[in-house]
Structures are given as structure tokens and as C-alpha cells.
Amino acid sequence: MLILTRLCGHKESIAKVFEIRTQRNPRFPNNVTKMMTEEQEPKKELTENPIIEWDLSKLRRKSKPVATMEEGMSILHRLVAVADTFYKGKAAGLAAPQIGIFKRAFVVHIPVVEGSSRLPQHVTDEWLGYINPVIHETDGEGEIDYDGCLSFPGLVAITRRWRRIKISALNCPEPVWLDPGADVTRENGDTFLGSGPSIFFQHEFDHLSGIMFFDREVDPEEKEKLAAEVRGHQPQRV
Ligand SMILES: [Zn+2]
């Protein structure tokens, strides 16, 4: 399911961020794509893909809290820029440690269908960003689905994720429930589709603790096979 992804940020004051945030749907107060658009953040040129692939000596590292909103927004910007430049339309999320920044921040993608119809007449892409995220509660039974990751190209697992989670973050201080998104309609009539924010959130949240999606494979035999494949890709160290 993590086959799609993107992100964003800002450079103005914290007050400006909060002002913008309150103008949005309270369910998704931290839409980074909207922030970037509204603040006309210039896009930085990226020439080299910084995403870490396979290397567990890096990807298993635990990330530290982000110190300030400015630092966090800068990281979110960077994540969106990387995803948009190298994985346009192919990523569902990206966490800071995947690009070598071991801080607690990530972005998740939400496909948006313009109009109230559930049929995707026109699909746009937006990113939600989370700085120092917290999961407060989970709701419902776990659901299984395919799962994958930009850091492990081609590897697919079946994992179980909570359907709904109650979360907060530095840039989203009021706890809100995230759901898979299929039946969320915004004030302007846009409808969110797909596996959606709650599922993607859990995948990216795990990255901050060095937990990979294949660690959560539901079939023990398959889990061992996946682990063996990952071991086979580890860089040789002298
Ligand atoms: Zn991942």
C-alpha cells in the first residue's frame, strides 16, 4: 500500500503556521501541501536521491524529537521535495530517517478526489506532515493489507494496522482521529480515498523507532523469508 507518496513545509513564523492551520479542515489541520502553496515556497532543486535503501545499520536507528517548529517544517519541506522529485505519484509516505535525518517527522500522502463523487473524476495529490507525532488511542480491529516501502524496493509484506488512530503532533496539538480515509469528505466537498492517512501514518511512525514493515508480516514463515532477503542486501562491512 505504501506504493504512493509526497510532502512540504514553510519558512515563516510559527504564528503564521497556526493561522494557516486553523483555516483548514480540523480533521487535517496539518496539510503541508496547502501550506507550501499558500506561502509560495520556492522548490529547491534536488539532483541526488537521498533515500537510504536496505541499510539496516541506518534504518534501525531511533530518531530523536524535533526541537522546534522551524526545524520540523524544514524537514517536512525536504521530505516533500524528495518524494515529489523522485517518486511522483508512487509513494504513500516518507519518514525523515529514510533520508538520513534521524528526527521524529514524516509525511503521508492523501489522494484527493475533487468533487463529492466517490468516483475519481480528477485526482490531485496532497501531503500531511507530522512533527513529533504521538498515537494516543486505537480503535476497531486491525486490518491486514499489502505493505511496501521506498527503502526496500520490490519487497512486499502483508501487515496488520489499526483502522483508526487518535494522534497529535507538535504541528497538530489537538488530538484528532485519523481513519483510512474512504469516507472522509472535506468542507469543500473533496473526498479522500484509499487506504489513507491512518494506515500510512502507522507505517511512517514505525520508521521513527527503527521498525520496518516486514517486521510486522503476519505470516511467520513469510516473515523469515523477508528477513533473509533483507539480510542479503546488507552492505558488506570490513
Ligand atoms: Zn517505509
What are the main properties of this structure?
alpha+beta, three-stranded antiparallel sheet, 6 helices, Peptide Deformylase, binds zinc ion, 27% helix, five-stranded antiparallel sheet, disordered N terminus, 238 residues
Provide a descriptive summary of the structure in words.
Mean pLDDT is 75; it is low at 1-28, 38-42 and 114-123. This protein is of the alpha+beta class. 40% of the residues are buried. Strands 1, 2, 3, 7 and 8 form a 5-stranded antiparallel β-sheet that branches. The protein has one domain (14-232): Peptide deformylase (Peptide Deformylase, Alpha-Beta Complex), CATH 3.90.45.10. Helices cover 27% and strands 25% of the residues. The protein binds zinc ion. Zinc ion (ZN) is lined by residues 2, 149-151, 203, 207. The site of zinc ion has 6 residues, from helix 5.
Question: Can you list the ligands bound to this structure?
Answer: zinc ion
Relevant CATH superfamily: Peptide deformylase
Poorly predicted regions are 1-28, 38-42, 114-123
Number of strands: 8
In terms of structural class, how would the helical and strand content be classed?
alpha+beta
CATH class: Alpha Beta
Strand proportion: 15-25%
Mean pLDDT: 75
Assembly type of the chains comes to: single chain
Give the domain tally. 1
As for the CATH topology, it is Peptide Deformylase
How many helices does DSSP assign? 6
Q: Just name the CATH architecture.
A: Alpha-Beta Complex
Return the string of H and E elements: HHHHEEEEEEEEHH
